[in-house]
Amino acid sequence: MLGMILQNMVFPPDEAGENEIYVRYSARPGRTVRPYCIRQGEAVSTDTYMNAFDIGAWRKYTDISDLSLVWRIRGKGRLRIFWERENGENICLSEEAVAGQDSEPGKGKYHFQDFQQQTEGILYFRFYAETDSNIEAWYETDSPVRKGIKISVVICTYKRKEQLEQLINVLRKGIQASCGNKEDWLRIVVVDNASELEDQYGEGITVYHNPNTGGSGGFARGMKETVRNLPVFQASHVVLMDDDVVLQIESIIRLHALLSCVRPEYEQEVIAGRMFRLDRPHIQYTAAEIWNRGDIRHIGWNRDMTDRQRLWDMNENTGGEYSGWWFACFPTGFVKENEPLPFFLHCDDVEYGLRHGGTPIILNGIQVWHETYEYRQTPVIAYYDRRNSMIVNEIFGFTEWNQTQALDQFMSMLDELEAQGNYLLEYYMIRAFRDFLRGQKWFMNQDGRKLHDSLKKGMKASQFYNVINRKILKISVLWKRGRKLYFMDR
Fold first, then answer.
1. Is 489 domain-assigned?
2. pLDDT tens figures, 177-194
3. pTM of the predicted model, to two decimals?
4. Were both Cys, which of 77, 110, 379, 463 would link to 129 (CB 3.0–4.6 Å)?
């Protein structure tokens, strides 16, 4: 009987990759390192973010009681297996001579006999090549695992066909792997808000054309279709994923393994996929999010994950409250009972995650690469950020409104924008506050597409025009005199 693979050894995807989040090479100076190829006299080590096996995380979140390292080798060398403890003690557990040919790779397995007594630290191995070599390796368990773990990946897309298809090509490998194991545990749901894609991506991938209801509406449609399809594909979990992320299929495989072994007390928790930076691929932008009343804080913000010292706390989530929808995995039971609010853009993941509650689980190797916030800001996005943040804060009781103070602070911000001559952003901020004051009934009855189109068209962003908008804003507040500035109906 084959064991459950928990974690595969992953090499950098190309020669230009940031090697040391994957492996640490001792290569000759000046030599270009090629993925999977270890030259004679060189060594490769897996004490890295992507490949270290975090004993503490796997013991905390899962029920696994045994563990083995399995390898296949083409070439010849020596394999040393280490347990490094948090106090710095580095114990060599095994050293073995390994060899194999292209036609018949050498295979081996090391069983960690004391795994039940190991509660902290990392496991890794180092391979010393005596000839030009290629090595594959993975950690597996023979512990009983949960049956019926099936994942529906929901992607909302709008006019990003090239990026979407790159993502689909990666995910297709996961579908093939799941079917190869005769488990059929992965399906892809694409919601096309531009209604321009053909449903031509093959078995296990379904495209739904959708009006442009924004990210929140697109994800909501994908959730509904997943639930509607439960008699055919009984998804136990739903992953919400942006269309413009860069993904490695190991993240999905590792997610499936984690869910298959998770302890009962963690079954309903969200699994958060980290975000790494596209512009600096070795930098972790965030592992999970803290709302902080709209002044968002990031767990592990802008960390260089090639730094070996990061291995000791890379899977700690102290204070994290939710996961962004670049990669967030929810139990289907929660999805069946909960729809996102129609925010159109931004803060839908915040509100949904806070509504779920709990502390998201993070695990090294479950992540995407994504463009960071500073590259995506526009005045229209700023409108959604301002309006939706106020709505989230009011829903979850993070705001005690004082009419005079709130208006004074807001007017001060507008004065600063006007002093900068930024009349366009000033207009959108005024409009965000006005629309928030219109309340829940107005918000829930809006046609998000029409509102978004009007925002894109913009208005006459002149100083004179905004003077008028300021007066209207003040009238809106005065009209609510005697009441708190609640968004939700009370």
1. no
2. 776 556 789 999 999 999
3. 0.93
4. 77
